[in-house]
Amino acid sequence: MSLSNxxxxxxxxxxxxxxxxxxxxxxxxxxxxxLARGEQIQRLPGLICxxxxxxxGRDREIKMAIKLWAQYxxxxxxx
Length: 79
What we know:
The chain is mainly α. The protein is built from four helices and no strands.
């Protein structure tokens, strides 16, 4: 399954209301997009692995960033 299709199939929940937590999620999201593009990561498990290397101890923010990206992808037509 491609990264785009995997993101489309993820369940989506809310992003934190706390502005500090929101900033952390957006930082990880920017990193996720840059890593996926820059390193041509095409699979979700590979991206999560890289994000955990770049952002150790931030599993919750990684999960939320992936969900936010999934929400964006879900709003577009999936192929």
